[in-house]
Every structure is written in structure tokens, then in C-alpha cells.
Write a structure and sequence with these properties.
- This protein is of the alpha+beta class.
- The chain contains three helices and eight strands.
- The chain has a four-stranded antiparallel β-sheet, covered by helices on one side.
- A hairpin with a 2-residue loop joins strand 1 and strand 2.
- Helix 1 packs across helix 3.
- The longest helix has 18 residues.
Length: 180
């Protein structure tokens, strides 16, 4: 695809995204700068501590078994973060997705949300070792991971718009993965 055609497609996709934002989503701003899409959103953070949900074994300082996070009362705070997507060659290639702090710097790995079930946010991608990544269909990290060689982007791309990818990530970032 010609770069001008890609740029027009991305512009149209971002317009669809802006129109699709619902009032219940805490999206503050959507900005497209060349091939970088930045979605600034607000999240409520709670400090938490892991607790076993039934039999568990303490190995070192980590509980092994069924674990959930228990929020620490009085630790609630609001913070703005940025979900940035590199949409180079979209949609012949899926976007990459990364989290940034409010000042635009990469969010340190220890600040990324955690999923106690190990679903959706994973460390140590062979190509992106410096940060955790979203391991879900629709992201380049997912489709280029060796464990997902049998799930190529082309099998998903027709039914997966940029707005669907972004909005599903934002929903999980603000509801499922908010406790730290």
C-alpha cells in the first residue's frame, strides 16, 4: 500500500475511534502524530497486596496458587497515562501498543498494570524485551510472538478495526488491570 493511502486509512480510522468513544470511558484526548496514535486516559489506581483464594504456597516472597489482589483502603489516587500505538503500515500490519507516563516517557515495567491470572499483559517478548506487552489479538506483539505463529494478523484484520483494538485495551486498562 502506498504511504499516502495508509495515512488516509489511519486518519479515517482515528476519526471512527473518536466517534466511538462512549461517555463511560475516561479518555481525555486522542492525538495522531504521523504514525503515532496517543490515547490519554485517566485511571484510578489502588495499592493492593496479593492474597490466596484457597490453598496457596508461599515460595520466597511470592504466593503460588490462585491469587487475587486485595485493595489497600485509603490508597486510591487518579492518574493520567497514555496508551500509544505505532500504526505504521496499518492495517497490513497490526499496531504495536505501549504505555507511557503522563509526561510521555515510557512507563517503567514495574508500573505496568498486573494481571494475577497472567492473561493479557506479559513480560519479555522476544522483540520487545525492554517492556511488558499486551498479549492479545490485534497487537503486533501478539501476532509476532512465537507462541502465536498459528494466529496470523491476516486471520483477524478484516474484523478488527483500530477503534476496536484501542477501546478494548482502554476498557481493560481502566477496569480489569487497575490495581497495582
Amino acid at each position: 500500500m502506498h504511504p499516502d493511502d495508509v495515512a488516509r486509512h489511519v486518519d479515517a480510522s482515528v476519526d471512527v475511534l473518536r466517534d466511538a468513544v462512549q461517555p463511560d470511558l475516561p479518555i481525555v484526548d486522542i492525538e495522531l502524530d504521523g504514525t503515532q496514535l496517543r490515547v490519554r486516559y485517566e485511571v484510578e489506581l489502588l495499592a493492593s497486596t496479593p492474597a490466596a483464594a484457597g490453598p496457596g504456597v508461599l515460595v520466597g516472597n511470592q504466593i503460588v496458587g490462585t491469587v487475587f489482589n486485595v485493595p489497600i483502603l485509603g490508597s486510591r489516587r487518579r492518574e493520567q497515562l497514555i496508551l500509544t500505538l505505532d500504526v505504521t503500515d496499518f492495517d497490513s500490519q497490526p499496531p504495536t501498543a505501549e504505555l507511557l507516563a503522563a509526561d510521555g516517557t515510557p512507563l517503567p515495567p514495574e508500573r505496568w498494570p498486573r494481571d494475577v491470572e497472567g492473561q493479557g499483559i506479559v513480560p519479555d517478548h522476544p522483540l520487545w524485551r525492554r517492556r511488558p506487552f499486551f498479549c492479545r489479538p490485534g497487537t503486533r506483539e501478539f501476532h509476532t510472538h512465537p507462541q502465536h505463529e498459528d494466529e496470523p494478523w491476516d486471520a483477524y484484520r478484516e474484523g478488527m478495526s483500530l477503534s476496536n483494538i484501542v477501546l478494548s485495551l482502554i476498557r481493560d486498562l481502566t477496569t480489569r488491570w487497575t490495581m497495582q
